[in-house]
């Protein structure tokens, strides 16, 4: 099974980055490449099946999507590798660490999904911070409600950065993504498994993330005995674009632990 891939020219250890649901490898690179610049890591950005430029070459289930990523890792990298992901990509990365720990040296999980079903998530109860008037005026009408819930750093500049990332990359397969998102196989079958991953982990969440929250991620830290947990104020579900400097600082700590 083939996946569309972008790689850096660095010759160091590999970090493989997985995207948010419906996002592309270009959007993932926009989120993570500034964080990894100058680290000497060989960065790899994947389009998941049915996303960006990758064909929908598997069943529309999260297990099949994850198995496709694992098969690519088996063929193309010297395991174990560092895995980074945001949102759905972080959900898959955590799943790989449970099912194929031989592939994973460490995990960077940014705004990770813990449970797929929205009704099962613990979301922030406080109102988000104030925003300047008209901060969402340049967003498409159909995205304004989503961004209003998702963003904690609520400025026109952040909105513009997020929109540019979401619009980048290949077209994807809308039918496949819809079948995946609405099907019974959207949750990984071992989502609730009580399995420990012993590698270095950094879980970074947004205090105002109205999509996946931050409390469930804290409770999941029992699975990561070498894990660091951070909740960032003035950040939501698009934390890499809302607080890039802080993300880079937190990532440096994770890389230090992963290399020692």
UniProtKB/TrEMBL annotation:
One of its GO terms (molecular function) is catalytic activity. InterPro entries: AB_hydrolase_1, AB_hydrolase_fold, AB_hydrolase_sf, Epox_hydrolase-like. This is Pimeloyl-ACP methyl ester carboxylesterase. SUPFAM superfamilies: alpha/beta-Hydrolases. It comes from Micromonospora jinlongensis. It holds the Pfam family Abhydrolase_6. Residues 45-245 form the AB hydrolase-1 domain.
